[in-house]
Amino acid sequence: MASQGDHVDAARILLYHKAPVDDVTVDFLTALHVAAHCGHVRVAKLLLDRKADPNSRALNGFTPLHIACKKNRIKVVELLLKHGASIEATTESGLTPLHVASFMGCMNIVIYLIQHGASADVPTVRGETPLHLAARANQTDIIRILLRNGAQVDARAREQQTALHIASRLGNSDIVVLLLQHGAAVDATTKDHYTALHIAAKEGQEEVASVLLEHGASLTSTTKKGFTPLHLAAKYGNMKVARLLLQKDAPVDSQGKNGVTPLHVAAHYDHQNVALLLLDKGASPHATAKNGYTPLHIAARKNQMDIATTLLEYGASANAESKAGFTPLHLSSQEGHTDMATLLIEHNASSGATAKNGLTPLHLCAQEDRVNVAAILVKHGAQIDPVTKAGYTPLHVASHFGQMNMVRFLLQHGAKVDSTTQLG
């Protein structure tokens, strides 16, 4: 209490009467921790003169020096170091006093610690150096000081993140420029092979993306999934970044490891504006992923009406087949998307299209009990009893899956009750 209130005389009397100088609270805070927190230099000096431990550790591993750095108590920092406080003491998470001062933006303390031998490259448990923490806290001036004093600009944290990755995620273009001026590798990759440009594209940081591109960032670098920065701009609907990337001639139909293009991705996540931008820049509406899906297959399955309409306007085929022979109408029928099914049929989708195993859209309606879509299919000429290669009709399928509404519908429309499969 005397330390907290800066009551030097009271503290002196207590110590004279044998009060333990390093007595701790339930959080293992000593009187010196408290004095450091409050910036009470006179009490701190009294405690240190009475042999208080300058390196006592609180429950989280913080020493009085860590706390003085956190609270920007430069006079206490000076005092502690003169009395033997460890400048490289680490907390439970591996933070040194320089980590703490860097994160908090305490410039005078950062300079003082470095002048007294603090290392700018000590990693925490997560592999983060003071430079990483300064970037995370948007401390531009601290980063400048650290770099001028030899901090490794491309130091890697646990996920292989550099300070440039962090600054790009947060959209701090000033820090990005500063790091690049000090030699940061513009195309350094994280564990998942993300470059700073990938991260800027994901987060919608247009200004940062522009800076990175001016410094030669690659438009074609790919993540572990094979995604370019344009894929990520499409995935997250970041229109401005997508436009910037395309202006810099990003490959519009680049395929990921599963074969998807940025247009597939925009369709999947229902980013109509990005899809339209891609199409205007020459993206192919006919591009196929490894499973044979076109962007229209994806839009049809997910009931993305606006994107499907746009794709059809740009010439996408309503009868495009996947590797298994499924058309967009198969997928919309299976999902029960009535408006999508109608749209596709209006654009000449075959209501009786057969997949390689013989399944038609009506078979899939039967499996999932999609009576409303089945009615649309039959109205537009779908046969009521098409058979698969194994001899199954929609009635067989509806009966097998216990879809009584579909059974009634099919019977009402003349389905044969005596059709046999190859199994009899």
UniProtKB/TrEMBL annotation:
Entry keyword Iron-sulfur: no
Keyword presence, Repeat: yes
Keywords: ANK repeat, Repeat
Family annotation (PROSITE patterns): ANK_REP_REGION, ANK_REPEAT
Residue spans of the ANK repeats: 27-59, 60-92, 93-125, 126-158, 159-191, 192-224, 225-257, 258-290, 291-323, 324-356, 357-389, 390-422
Top-rank lineage group of the source organism: Eukaryota
Cross-referenced InterPro entries: Ankyrin_rpt (IPR002110), Ankyrin_rpt-contain_sf (IPR036770), Multifunctional_ANK_Repeat (IPR051165)
Protein name: Uncharacterized protein
Species annotation: Halocaridina rubra
